[in-house]
Amino acid sequence: MPNELPATMRQIRTLVTDDGRLHLSLASVDLPEPQPHELVVRIEAAPINPSDLGLLLAAADLETATASGSPTEPVVTAEISPQVMRGLSARIGESMPVGNEGAGVVVAAGSSVEAQALLGRTVSIVGGSTYAEYRCLPAMMCLPLPEGTEPADGASCFVNPLTSLGMVETMKMEGHTALVHTAAASNLGQMLQRICTADGVPLVNIVRRPEQADVLRALGATHVCDSSAATFMDDLTSALVETGATIAFDAIGGGRQAGQILACMEAAANTTATEYSRYGSSVHKQVYIYGSLDRGPTEFNRNFGLAWGIGGWLLTPFLGKIGMEGMRRLQARVVAELTTTFASHYTDEVSLAGALSLDAIRTYARQATGQKFLIRPSLQ
Amino acid sequence: MPNELPATMRQIRTLVTDDGRLHLSLASVDLPEPQPHELVVRIEAAPINPSDLGLLLAAADLETATASGSPTEPVVTAEISPQVMRGLSARIGESMPVGNEGAGVVVAAGSSVEAQALLGRTVSIVGGSTYAEYRCLPAMMCLPLPEGTEPADGASCFVNPLTSLGMVETMKMEGHTALVHTAAASNLGQMLQRICTADGVPLVNIVRRPEQADVLRALGATHVCDSSAATFMDDLTSALVETGATIAFDAIGGGRQAGQILACMEAAANTTATEYSRYGSSVHKQVYIYGSLDRGPTEFNRNFGLAWGIGGWLLTPFLGKIGMEGMRRLQARVVAELTTTFASHYTDEVSLAGALSLDAIRTYARQATGQKFLIRPSLQ
């Protein structure tokens, strides 16, 4: 390992204590020596994605959050409700590193040819513990980026790109030809619109405010339905008739929208029906819930026949389904279109300590569309 | 056609009018001449199943039901809410016959060898229009019953037997090894318990009252959870740990039970977990809603990770999946075990006119477990 590497590094840690409290801190940990097949990456940029928040914040009540420690060694604590604690028993007492993905420069490499070949390269990484100054991991979990790529441009190479590509792949694998997406003006939603535009896949975007519709129309979106409009159900049904979409990916989870989508799909299917079908249309209608912007209960009226499904969707099992070859194919596309189709936009850049300020936590915990944080570990 | 057959017959009809009213009546219609491949069956017994009620009653408000006509030619009308009417546009103005299944005697046959071979036989039939004195249909839609079978014993050969067998088949096809059933003391639920006992399939029964648990225990049920008990969630979780059931068939539909089942499945999966999994267990948990005893909204809290699904389940597409050969295999078992595994019990026998009395309608519309009507068209 080169001499200039420090012996220790700082890393964000999340801990749930048995008295029902979340405890966030910056730990100082030893920088590991890479094994022959491993690399040490100096992390330059790591996004805070909605999929990081469950581990990081443990669904704690942020109204109760308090800060202590010092500016360079912040500590945040907050209370966790007993109901939430029931699902957290397996992590109580274990201080855990956080951060699903990021990008940086390979500053040390193990002795293997594969590892040595990446020394000095800018790489995207996935696999946890990216909210840290360094990350030691197997060379095969690094995605080398083209020469000259800014680490910030490669920070979000996995979660959003593979999720949005995964939605289109799932649509095809399950026999649908068009799709619906909710909270559609998000970074992920904009990626999905660019993919669908490029691939000629009809996409129905559902947004919650008129200005979000404008963002998508500027990207060339044809179908944007605003759920705050009085005509929403009619607008959505018309878009479903035009596109024939019978699968939806829903980032919201709670509330009535998943059921409304199924009801409008059923109405669209029946628009052309000439005969009464006592059990509803035989067209299978599917909603996959992949996010939880609304953590409240999901409610629906089953006014959409019997050919329907609502289920969870998660990237990892999808990647398992398409296998290593399928994943390599998707990754190659991500790298080739990194600053176009798969470009991410960040509104806030923070240091590791800055990511633990109460203001920052309360802001990114809201998961407001348009607001996205990037952690820059080199910032002080 | 033998001379003794009448020229006309009586048949229950259901009609939705464009002013939002349900209109039930006994129509007098011509008895058709059988084509070469057809039979005329004198219907002796036809069950009123929950799956008949949607077509028959059109979700009308039975509080508003009024009777008119005469004892032999009853007419019932009731109001249908505007919300329900939206889903009924394709049947407005069309007087429709009702009754999914039944049994009777072949009293006339077309000229084909297949049709002639069944003359005089007692057969089970499926395919609609069984709430009538006669039914003319293709010979291939008749299931010949063993000599000496009482028509009442063969009246429910399709819907409940194939649905309960279909649940066990679906469980196997989708990779599960044990199952959960709700409203489990029903005729169908008792059949399912007998199938599971015979086949060694672990079954978790959920009932709504202690006396219903007794019915199932008398059949040899090992796992019966009473949802009215204060310990229900713990009881269910324990039964799920013991059986490993990760698929459920739910007759209720509305309310919170589908979500509770998924939450208990997740708790059961995590009972043996040694490591914290941030997205919940990776075990896929499935609830299929096949009935609608509670027509209210379905509500759940998504406290069961991301590997889950809730969907509709209907017999017809399942039969399409297993194909003709699969269906013949299931039917052969039904005939062989007609008075044991697949025995049905009826609490009320009514004439065609009796099925249209306000008292009867309000009783069978409640779909109370333990109460089941059989229409006997020969009764006056």
Which structural traits does this protein have?
homodimer; 380 residues; alpha/beta; seven-stranded mixed β-sheet; six-stranded parallel β-sheet; 20 strands; globular
Could you explain how this protein is built, in words?
2 copies of one chain form a homodimer. The first copy, chain A, is an alpha/beta fold. The first copy, chain A, is built from 11 helices and 20 strands. In chain A, strands 3, 7, 8, 9, 10, 19 and 20 form a 7-stranded mixed beta sheet that branches. In chain A, strands 13-12-11-14-16-18 form a 6-stranded parallel beta sheet, with helices on both faces. Chain A has a 5-stranded antiparallel beta sheet with strand order 4-5-2-1-6. In chain A, helix 8 (232-243) crosses helix 9 (257-271). The mean pLDDT of chain A is 94. Chain A binds chain B through residues 54-55, 87-91, 94, 96, 253-254, 259, 270, 273-280, 282, 289-290, 292, 297-303, 305-314, 316-317, and chain B through 54-55, 83, 87-91, 94, 96, 253-254, 259, 270, 273-280, 282, 289-290, 292, 297-303, 305-314, 316-317.
